[in-house]
Specification:
Blueprint: H1 2-24, H2 34-62, H3 69-102, H4 120-163, H5 179-199, H6 204-230
Length: about 230
């Protein structure tokens, strides 16, 4: 039961990490916006919540001395996959911090001329500046939180390595490398194999056409040779 729960949580973490990686690649580009920064914040926080839950379950399972050999090997595989997800998440969080700092959405803009005019236009400008200040405050706070969360993820990885010693090179995979790709392409190529087996390696109609073409070609060459000798 605990193993299936860990698998489900790890699958959710994989999806959240992949989604966060995709979102980070758009920071600083034409699709960058306030909504993107908020989506980045929500996605990384969800990934960290899942990571905390997975770490607690996997740590408790791997520190259980009564765990069977087969169960332990399965939890170790999950542990290695979980460690890889955390490493990728930390790298993407550092990339998001660097890009967010290099490409701020709301740079401070001060008016060059102060006319002192008051009225409806001035109130509209004041409301816009308040909204701009709120967005700017969110961006600054988000970058500060992101920097703190990067340190937390790094501490989590270090704490995992100290509590549970599972060298990655000792864990053996159940399937060969690229097994998923081979499985997906095997189904698509099954139709082609069946057709090839049905028709056989040699098609009689194609063989006849090739024979006729070869005979015509030889006759043409012989005719050319004869004409050349007569001339």
């Amino acid at each position: 039961m605990a193993r299936e729960e860990c698998k489900a949580l790890l699958e959710a973490l994989n999806k959240a990490t992949a989604c966060y990686h995709h979102l980070v690649l758009t920071v600083g580009g034409s699709a960058d916006s306030q909504n993107l920064r908020e989506e980045l914040q929500n996605t990384r926080q969800k990934a960290q919540e899942l990571a905390v839950a997975i770490r607690a379950r996997l740590t408790a399972a791997l520190r259980d001395r009564g765990l069977g050999a087969e169960e332990r090997s399965e939890f170790e595989r999950l542990w290695v996959a979980f460690s890889g997800c955390l490493d990728l998440l930390e790298v993407d969080m550092r990339r998001a911090l660097a890009l967010g700092t290099a490409f701020p959405l709301h740079a401070p803009r001060l008016p060059l001329v102060r006319t002192g005019v008051a009225g409806t236009a001035a109130r509209a400008l004041s409301t816009r500046s308040l909204r701009h200040k709120a967005d700017r405050d969110f961006e600054v706070a988000d970058l500060r939180d992101l920097e703190r969360e990067i340190l937390q993820v790094g501490e989590m990885i270090h704490d995992m390595e100290m509590k549970v010693n599972v060298p990655r090179w000792t864990v053996q995979a159940r399937e060969a490398a690229g097994a998923e790709l081979l499985a997906s392409t095997g189904a698509s190529s099954a139709g082609g194999v069946s057709v090839e087996e049905h028709t056989g390696p040699c098609d009689p109609s194609k063989a006849l056409a090739a024979t006729v073409f070869s005979a015509v070609l030889l006759a043409a060459v012989a005719l050319v040779v004869c004409v050349a000798k007569l001339s």
